[in-house]
User: What shape does this take?
Amino acid sequence: MRPLREKCENSNAVPSFCDCISGDESVDVAAQAFCKRAADSSGSVTGDELGELKKALKDLEATDVDESCCEC
Assistant: This one.
C-alpha cells in the first residue's frame, strides 16, 4: 500500500481529490482507478464513494503497519 499524501487525504470533493493525485505515480492503484472511473462516467461518482475509498485506503495502511510489526 502506498499512502496518499496528506493534502490529498484532506480533499473532500472528487474533482479536487483527483486533481491532487494526478501525475503522482506513488498513489495507490485503487485511487487512480477511482479517478479514471470518475472521468469516464462524466463525474457521476459521489463524495460518499470518495469517502469510502479514502476509508479503505486508510484501512489498508493500518493493515500493512500491523503486518510489518508482526515480523519484528
Observations:
- Residues 31 and 66 are 22 Å apart (CA to CA).
- The first helix runs from residue 6 to 9.
- The chain is about 65% helix and 0% strand.
